[in-house]
Amino acid sequence: MNIPTFREAEEQVGAILREQGALGAVLVDLEPLARIERSFGGATYQSLRQQVDPLMIEMKSRVRESDILTRDEREGDRFLFLLTDKRSEGGPFAISGLRKLADRIAEFLTPRVGRLTLPYLRERPAINVGYGFVIYSPLESSERQILRLIDEAVNCAEQRNREKDRERREALVEIIFNRDLWTAFQPIVEIETRTIVGHEGLSRGPRGSDLELPMTLFGLAARHGLVEELERACRRQAFVDWAVFGGAGRLFVNTVPATVRDPSFLGRGVLEYLGAGLTPRDVTLEITERQVIENLNLYREAMHPFTELGFTFAIDDVGAGYSGLETIANLGASYLKIDMGLVREVHQKRVSQQVVKAIVDMAAGVGATVIAEGIQGPDEADTLVNLGVRYGQGYYFGRPVDPYTPKMRVVLKGA
Prior knowledge:
Elements: H1 6-20, E1 22-29, H2 31-40, H3 42-63, E2 68-71, E3 78-82, H4 95-117, E4 128-135, H5 142-178, E5 182-190, E6 196-204, H6 214-223, H7 227-245, E7 250-254, H8 269-274, E8 283-288, H9 289-294, H10 296-309, E9 312-318, H11 325-329, E10 335-338, H12 340-343, H13 350-366, E11 369-372, H14 378-386, E12 391-392
Parallel strand pairs: 6-7, 7-8, 8-9, 9-10, 10-11, 11-12
Antiparallel strand pairs: 1-3, 1-4, 2-3, 5-6, 5-12
């Protein structure tokens, strides 16, 4: 079933407007699809659109089967539900009914569109849903009145999205201030012996919420300029959760550029910051390769106070696509963590093997330890060992563990 354009349904809709003496509409604006097209191209966009239309038809069948579903030919990602009756059920008309309908449509579409766009967007997209209502006037053409109705629904969708965005920012501020966060710990092992040598702390948002996943949580923080505040809260919580977890070996903690200039994380105060039983010599701060290259001078100047206290540094996502191997080699990091994109099916990819070997050779020349991330099977692990990689992490060795659920503590495969 094809979704007709608004123009194709205009005559039918105009007749409903005149017959009922009014017309309501709910508008769905899938603006995130346009962002995906700009970033990933027309083929990806068309593939998504082929999945979106059946989703809209399913939603119509579940919400209001008798209404008219159309698409706006001017904006290909904009859909209109034109209501064929006021559904007053004998009582007076109330705008609140339109608002509730818009909410139901948003609740249905948001998780489903989110799953479609997950590979392309850092966070679940906002589905802009608005509504409008026009009272028929015999002094004005039906076409002009319907276009006015659509404009009202567009404005409503934009306003509702701003309000929703404000609510999400306020929720994020509460999460950060209250440290409503927790840390999962994934083991880092010596590949051949399966001996645990450390754990990476992976920050999570409130359990069971749509902000639990770090990609969504930090994506929202980036949009609202709260990444540094969130990272500071996550870092503090990681040390608290580490004490509860009681894991073996070194703790690896992800950081952002602001960490190296955070006065609360330097000097004597750092011991209180870390908590009992944890010293700077037990902690490695991870920085992504991209952040290193973009903030090279900052890191060169600011790493020394940390290394003097005993902290070590790791460069994360090495080989992820930024040509900075020489820069990384001269930075003095103790660990280089190979990006999982290179690790994935490395046993079948000669080019990936060559890049991994180059990283291993470079690390040997500067005295750094190499860790491969995202290992999922024995073939990847064996190939990495043959290429000179001694340490690794990934689902093959153990999944991230919630320190507050002991029964789910990791059991290493092959151990």
